[in-house]
Amino acid sequence: MDQFAINLIVLGKSGVGKSSFCNYLFDKPGLFETGSGKPVTTWEKNFQSHTFAHQGHLLNVFDSVGLEADNYGRWLDQFDRFMQQRRERPMEPETWIHGAFYVINASSARLEPVDLNLIKRIGQDAQIPLQVILTNADVAGDKVEALTREIHKLCPGVSVTPLCSVSVRKRGGQSTQAFGREEVLSLYLEQSHAFLSKRLAAMSCLNFKRVLMEMRNTMVSKIEKADLSLFKIADLDLDREIELPDFDEVFSDLRSFDDYLSSFGFVGDWGTSDELESAVTRVFDDFQSEMEGRFKEIEGGFESDSLMRKVGALFEAAKIILTLKSTLIGWLDEGFERVDAELDRLFVKYAEQDNFFARCLTPSVMVVKSKLFGIF
Hints:
There is one protein chain. The two termini are 49 Å apart. By secondary structure, the protein is of the alpha/beta class. The chain has a 6-stranded mixed β-sheet with strand order 2-3-1-4-5-6, with helices on both faces. The chain folds into 2 domains: 175 residues, P-loop containing nucleotide triphosphate hydrolases (Rossmann fold, 3-Layer(aba) Sandwich), CATH 3.40.50.300; 157 residues. This is Septin-type G domain-containing protein. InterPro entries: G_SEPTIN_dom (IPR030379), P-loop_NTPase (IPR027417). It holds the Pfam family Septin. It comes from Pseudomonas cremoricolorata.
């Protein structure tokens, strides 16, 4: 796979230091135009991006127009449309928004309602990693700690990082050094890895369900077309009549999200891959053991000294032979439905409260009943 960029958005009110923060964070002085408390990013440039390399990762940064009292409605409308566009291709991870920075001036007396609304909208509703950045932390004094406490109280679980994006020489020869860059980037990459691992694992469950459905339909089609005539049953060669798909090729999607993680510059989450593979293999193995048990029970009936068990075994064998196609398809569906249910369980575990894949959650339709005696 090609290398993909980690997409992140930078949000905040006008004059809080978003552009200075970006210049400092990505070590690109002057790339993001700065101003003295005035709006810098224009509506024409709203949510336009710049791409940077950092420690083997590509970071795609979407800058935004600063929020002001008279532009909130327009800003929110454009923000919602931008986020919706980034949800339109849920099975293409490179199009997602992978995280956000919400910038607040640390000198603020308190968290404004507009800030609180957007922080909750991003972190809780969009379910993407979010860091609140407190700029001007070098001169804010005790306000940094007070604002951090307020954010943690009103927005539990949200990360808050104090930062000073510019070095300033003060009167008397003293100077303030920029700080916070490494803390912000380290935490962000950690959050991104955890976020991508979970969401890609959930996506892999959906991909795997799709692959299984295609496999099931292929196998059913082969069964329905196969010559399973009653008069040829003694010479039946199922391997020749019903050629099964290459399971290694079919299950190659199992580790696809590890490839995606590598494409974003992260080490693959092999533990999750192993969990997926082990869960599916276990269900198939358990079902196979049950099927073997059914046939052994019939075989045991024929070998029994009990006339009733012999008659019962004969009836079961005849029923299988006379309804061979529908029986095979029924067994097939039973096995696939169990795997499908296990993948649903894993999907809920990985997705948790994230409804990002809601449009992809279509009910599985595995069972297709063949006509009784559809063997002739």
